[in-house]
Amino acid sequence: MTAIGYSLFDTAVGRCAIAWSERGISALMLPEADDEATRKRLLRRVGNAPETTPPARIQQAIAAIQSLLEGGRTDLSNVAVDLDGMPDFNLQVYEIARKIPAGETLTYGDIAKRLGDVQLSRAVGQAMGQNPVPIVVPCHRVVAAGGKTGGFSAPGGSRTKLKILAIERAKVGNAPDLFD
Questions:
Q1: Which long-range contacts (C-beta less than 8 Å, at least 24 apart) are formed by 123-126?
Q2: Range(s) of the domain holding residue 19
Q3: Rounded to two decimals, what is the model's pTM?
């Protein structure tokens, strides 16, 4: 996946990085320990892209992401993404996930059933782990059955997932309310 530019930006959860192509956002990284670590992780995914000022459409997407991470009920489902090179199965999973509203969750099994086979639950989880644009494709809103959080490949893992869900005022089963 090649990007034509990237930028770091501040959010309520820390400094994120975003990369874009002519088609849309090609990668989004949640905060690492510092800017350099976030930058390195992003560039491992998108290759050698220049750090530059985002074009207007990407600035609008950044503002929407910032709003969502501040607790706004911002809908990111119309933000253009460039998922070129992702397997067709992943694209089907991401299409379903993008329809989950802020503050709500689906289980891996729910998505698998919508794809026609509950046995696909593990594959749904793997697709979520490969998501190049978390928050925009809201993999944090996909949880395990029985009120369990499930995995999260961003820095901080499940704790970060719970933090974002808490910002969105979503409840995950019997998960403790750690972030008030």
A1: 123/89, 124/93, 125/150, 125/151
A2: 5-69
A3: 0.89
